[in-house]
Amino acid sequence: MLCRNGGGLLEKQNRIVWFLLAAVLFSLQVLPRLWTDSAVTDEAWETTSGYYYWLQGDVVSPHNHPPTANALNALPLLCMPLKTLPGIWNNSENRAYAFYYVSNLTQLDWILILSRSMSLIFSLAAGFILYLLVRRESWVVFISALLLWAFEPNLLAFSTISKADAIFTFFCTASLFCFLRSREEKSWRWYFLTGLMTGLVMTSKLTGLCLLPIFLALDLWEYGKIKGSFVSRWVIGIAGFLAAVFFVYLPGTIRLPYHLNPFQYFFLRIKDGLWLAGNFHTSAFFWGQNYPSETWWQFPVIFALKSTVPFTLLILAGMIGLALGKVKVPAWVWFFPLAWIAFLHLSPLVYLRYAMPVYPALILLAAQGARWLWEAGKTPQWRSLRWLLVFAGLWNAASTLSYFSNQIGYFNDFVLPSEKVKLLDYHYFDLDQDLKRLALVSKERQWTHVKLAYAGQDDPYYYGLPMWEPWSLKDLSAPQPGMVYVIEKHMLLSQSEAFPLFRSWPKVLKPTGRVGDAWEYYEIPGAAKETDRSPFLPSTPALVYQNAPYRHQNQVKP
């Protein structure tokens, strides 16, 4: 069946079966996380903004993302009998807190499951476009591409998180596919679809703005190879782009008080994004130290650490084969990811998930690298290359599956679990996905007096952690009898003088246990004494937790 000439299921007309198998493998790895992961960083904010898009035409919420992806993630929630608190408007933090943890706490699991299912659906749709790109390739390229996609930890990590990334990646992939088809076929439909998809990209995430110069550069570079009129392609494409922008922002025009036209709302969002890019300053934690900002040379290292070793090696093989003339790929396969990542570095902060739209091109390049090595294995002296490729495929799958189902925390096989927190920013291994697991541990171990050192957005109390307090000056000086001290590990690396854990007893005392990649806890024997009256330390976001209704009800005032 797996012969070079193709036969049975490897015949081109039957290859859809292989995609369906890959889609099943992809889905099985992420489905459990629909309900086992707690709400991750920014998830409540973005999904709530999407829900209010449908409810009140909100296209101006201050979370710095255009509305399309958030609205699509929130779409299934319209089928639920959810409640909203009146009077909370245009404040994403308070509004999301109220929506998730006050008005609809009893339905929190279903809110997560339904909104996250949209990310999975769109990730599978992006995988289908990758299938369309490789279905006519040799069977080595075809099988390699599908397996690399089905076991790509970064794509898996964000395929069940109700944030913009998965849907944004789909629209970028769909826009690229339509753009390529519009260059091959003289059809206004493909021209219009290219513009429409590009509009949906730019109304999902502002980094999509870099698509236009990339497409323009590709068109000008290969001007003579394009079918149809260059001018008509771009005029019709711009019409499709404007149509997408108009209809996405139309609910704001109809329902918001000022009734601005849709394009005004679109340009206001771009203006806000450009202002943020020029005024947002943050340090980047890389390889054990803080840098004033992320630099371009850090990105390849981060990619290698967070990708499987076989995938990285096959990309290198594809690049070497391309340089030697052994690998033949269209220009977009290497130009698109190179240009995208170059544009990303104009942003004040670049996380690896921002590069998700380039993964289809990288997978195709790696698959072509695999084909080159496989064909080189025809000769007796290089036959071992074929066995190495089979081993690489098994290694790739095993490496990813070993993290089931915590792909968020994936690092390659040469990074020890204890080293994650020392190498990269905690966003690369912890997005607060373990709050529910932390609460389960607290229930099993019957915690009663908990002190929490945590800088996240979502309150673990709502997942079952006992009512906790922030650390105090007294706790910092020495652990108190009868207390359980819970620490988010990256806080141990923080050099903050306001909460200097890096100089306190947790640096030398061995923890009682750990939860996931990010949490450590210290169970101090003895009986809890009188209420701690020393000043609390700034270890938890006051906006969310100090104003929580349950704290007022229980008269606990951090």
Could you describe the 3D structure shown?
The protein has 558 residues and is mainly α. The protein is built from 24 helices and seven strands. The strands form two sheets. It has a five-stranded mixed beta sheet. The chain has a two-stranded antiparallel sheet with strand order 1-2. Helix 6 runs antiparallel to helix 7. The N terminus is likely disordered.
Write the layout of secondary structure elements.
Layout: H1 16-30, H2 33-36, H3 43-56, H4 68-74, H5 92-103, H6 108-134, H7 139-150, H8 153-157, H9 165-184, H10 188-202, H11 211-221, H12 230-255, H13 262-279, E1 284-286, E2 289-291, H14 298-306, H15 309-324, H16 331-344, H17 359-376, H18 384-401, H19 420-423, H20 435-444, E3 450-453, E4 468-470, H21 473-477, E5 484-488, H22 490-493, E6 513-515, E7 519-523, H23 542-545, H24 549-553
Parallel strand pairs: 3-4, 3-5
Antiparallel strand pairs: 1-2, 5-7, 6-7
Radius of gyration: 25 Å
* Intertermini distance: 67 Å
**Broad shape:** globular
Helical amount: 40-55%
Q: How many beta-strand runs?
A: 7
Strand percentage lies at under 5%
Largest sheet: 5 strands, mixed
What's the quaternary structure here?
single chain
Taking strands numbered 1, 2, ... along the chain, how are they ordered across the largest sheet? 4-3-5-7-6
What is the mean pLDDT?
Answer: 90
Unreliably modeled segments: 1-6
- Helical segment count: 24
Helix and strand content put the structural class at mainly alpha
